Amino acid sequence: MIRKVKGTRDILPPESRLWVEVEAVANRIFGGFGYEEIRLPLLEPTELFVRSVGEDTDIVSKEMYTFADRKGRSLTLRPEGTAGVARAYIENGLGQRPMPLRVSYLGPMFRYEKMQRGRYRQFAQIGIELIGAATPQADVEVLLVLHSFLTELGFDDLVIVVNNLGDPEDRPRFIEGFKNELEPHRAELCADCQRRWDANPLRILDCKVERCRELVADTTPVAEVVSEEARAHVEAVENGLASLEIPVQRSPRLVRGIDYYLRTVFEVVSPKLGENTVICGGGRYDRLISDLGGSQVPATGFAIGEDRLIEVLPEPFRRRVLDRPTVAVLPIGEKANSAALAIARLLVRQGISAQTEVTDRSLKAGFKWAGKIGAQAAVILGEDEIAAGSAIVRDLQRGEQETVALEEVPGYVERLIASDSET
Ligand code: HAM
């Protein structure tokens, strides 16, 4: 037997319905705020991620699926979506469109990570990017869209944490103090952090090694070493959120594991999954597009881990999606086969899900099958019914049945399903 690649998942029905529904809600809410889907390649030149996510990040240094194509070009399966959006923005001249540009995306990302619950090597993200607005109001909008989406799914226990990373100009000052504080323990840092010490000390802050985390915990948080403008920016974001009654918590240690961020950064955690399992991450990245060769365009956005989101979906949403009613259409005898499919067509046109018995089972076996697929009603069609232009509709929960004129079957079934779900 050939097995799936480690870290990838088969998402089977009916679980897959949750994915379809979550994505439909995302498209509706994001679309409502003006964010339209951008569909980008899964394959990008490796250099794109090295220059955006950053050479010394875990993602680029350890987790990318990178390979040479047949012509020897280095390609990478995208580990995240923001870099691709920035590339597409520059390459397609999207700066010519009315600004700001609002785009959304969803789809698979790839990171070679150690497998555990909620951490996969192929996982899906749902995200938005707002490009061309430097204001705190833009960050507030992005968080409002996030909050609206999560609320629509029925979440009420998720926590949004924010922090201020300051501007790139603030970094040398921060790094100097940070290194001074850490110097006495420098030798205790892991081998990766030894390398980061000179190459990119900010990345020591998100090292996952226990000892490094302990050492870093005692240093001055980055938010305390930011310019007046950066401080005012993130405070304005917090005030904007407060006036929209969107609760957020300050987390001075939050740094995020990607190089392109500045000023506002945020994450969403679920009490159900614990603090270390982040459902969503995002923030402002005003220098990314220019660093990749485009013009100076500020931007902000987020990406939700869809796999993790689905693991903690509120029960009412899950039930509503998974308990979707269906109808079994059971023909008796060969002559009824096409008529049964015609009834299914009629039902589906009315928005009622209907599955037809197509395996020539006996009626008794057909009822058994209808039970197994969880059908709420069965529509039974024999030669007599066809001749009379009618069908028998059986309520499988109550065990009652009635003969109904064909054209009235959809309406009848609809009422039956509605009354069953009330009881
Ligand atoms: P990120 O924090 O690297 O940010 O990823 C966003 C989310 O993707 C995480 O919060 C997590 O839920 C999910 N995720 C990441 N790795 C895995 C994994 N191995 N298995 C399952 N889920 C995972 C970004 O990717 C940024 N591009 C977000 C962003 C958009 N910033 C601005 N705009």
Write a concise keyword list for the protein shown above:
423 residues, alpha+beta, BirA Bifunctional Protein, domain 2, Rossmann fold, 2 domains, 16 helices, 21% strand, binds histidyl-adenosine monophosphate
Nutshell version of this structure?
The chain has 423 residues and is α+β, with helices and mostly antiparallel strands. The chain has helices spanning 15-32, 46-52, 58-63, 82-91, 136-152, 171-182, 191-199, 210-217, 228-243, 288-291, 306-311, 315-322, 336-349, 363-372, 383-388, 409-422; strands at 36-37, 43-45, 65-68, 74-77, 101-110, 122-131, 159-164, 248-250, 262-269, 278-284, 299-305, 327-331, 354-356, 377-381, 390-395, 400-405. A hairpin with a 5-residue loop joins strand 3 and strand 4 (74-77).
